[in-house]
Design brief:
The complex is a heterodimer of chains A (274) and B (311). The C terminus of chain A is likely disordered. With 274 residues, chain A is mainly α. Chain A is 71% helix and 0% strand. Chain A has 15 helices and no strands. In chain A, α4 packs across α10 and α11 crosses α15. Chain A is globular. In chain B, α2 crosses α14 and α3 runs antiparallel to α11. Chain B starts with a helix and ends with a helix. Classes of the chains: A mainly alpha (274), B mainly alpha (311).
Chain lengths: 274, 311
Amino acid sequence: MKIFKYFTAIFLSLIVLIPLMMTVTISLNPDNTDIMASMGSWKSFIPTHFSLDNFEKVWTDPYHPFGRYFFNTALITAVSLTLSLAVNSMAAFALAWGENRYKKVILGAIIAVLAIPVESLVLPQLLMVSRAGLIDTYIVQILPVTANAFFIFLFYQFFSKIPKDLIDAAKVDGFNLFKTFWHIGLPSAVPVSVTVAILHFLAIWNSYLWPIMVTRGTEVRPLSVAMSAYFSGNQTSWGNVMAFAVCMAIPVIIFFLIIQRKFVASLTGSAVKG
Amino acid sequence: MQYVETRQATLSVPKKRDLIMQKYKRLLPEIGMLLPAIILLLIFVFIPFFLSAYFSFTNEKLMPRPIPTQLLGFRNYERVLTDPEFWQAVGNTVYFALWVIPIQLTMSLGSAILLNSKLKAVGLFRSITILPMLTPMTVIVAIWAALLQTPDGMFNGLYQWITQSNDYIDWLGDGDIAMFSIVMLSAWATFPFQMLIYLAGLQEIPADRYEAASIDGFSNWNKFRYITLPGLRNTNIFVVIITTIGALSLFTQVNMLTQGGPNGSTMTIIQYMFINGFQAQKIGYASSVAVIFFIAVATIGILQRHLMKNE
């Protein structure tokens, strides 16, 4: 039984690892004919060449400024992540502990929003931002993803579990709602914030439909769209495409492997179960 | 008596105003905390939602035109619902969902149970298994394009090794197979997320239930059937719903790999909406597709919730 389990775990790991190792192997191979010849065999996932030629080509490609793309994605991620954490946690705390009469209605509306798939909203959103002259800007890639009903809901679930005595005590001390949020809510919300940050981060790095519609040139284009454009422009030179893929994926993977323990713990914590 | 009453009355006037002022002062931070989220949700969710419904009854175009936009009644819907290409897209999307959902659920639940058991190096196995989730989808598509490359890719290498022949399969160019290739790619790309949610669900099942079952001589299958599955009920509802929504909104993979081809065999609802709304700029027409999509997804979600709750 134990052996069977190890066997399955190794098999699963291989299914995951083989395509990723192939990516690294091909990206290190400067010879395109050799790549094509070895692509269908085991040689394509055990590196035999160690050359950075492909990477150099990716970084110096005049039509695809990789550094610029990377900067764009990093900027969009950093700004929208900060805003998203602030906006959604604040709203959730106000919904959990505020005193206004319409709280329930607002919360109900936000939960109803959860049922709307983003894909069914992109066309009117596109029309609005294009009439507002926001095409090809950073703002258009940041603001629409800032307020998120699901994140508000996650924060709300967390904040509503804070003991009432704690909130009342703060009130007696003369704290207003924002001060209570700042001194009591926020410091205790680290686990749920990590969850939201991870989900937001992954959403930005995977986003495709929206950025492909609202970015035309290379100036504000994010990596995800750039990867697709680079892929369709270099379909025969797998070495370059794979080098691009490695450059895009490695920073994320390294980052997550560093915070791995926290990461798995936070996603497997009670936060993600709707 | 009278004296007391007047005294109270004179006092209560400023008091009341104070109270109201105090109340506003108290509500001010609250309003400030709610407003950013409410305004952004209004602009980017609520208004687009109603605009989408409105546009679906008009001939709105993406670029402003000199001629005013006209109301068309249900003509967009009539045209969408009688377009064979749309029905092909619906059929393909359903085909994709019917394959990818069971594959993904089995893979994610299976690996969650496996990686929840006491194995040595379980942390390492978990780290490896979540790698596809950390790899951006556009990168995964590029990688799989290489794997599926015809005739040199790894899949054809495997195929030739298994069949011991020189035949090959055109994984993305053959209309009968292309969608299934995208099923495999998508299952690989997204199962780790569902796996993590299942892991979370598994960790909430009390260990003593399993111990008690062991004492009663339950087989592994019966433990799974009578403890694990019932314990995962809420998790299951959540995972099935998000997997379904994800499957029905298939876009990135198709848009990058096949653009809906060959011969529309990988056209999906969202790709169809994208082509009509963005590339052909027919916002009105494509909005009716968006509305149909929304109604379908919402109905399926509600049905699933209802059915699984009553099970």
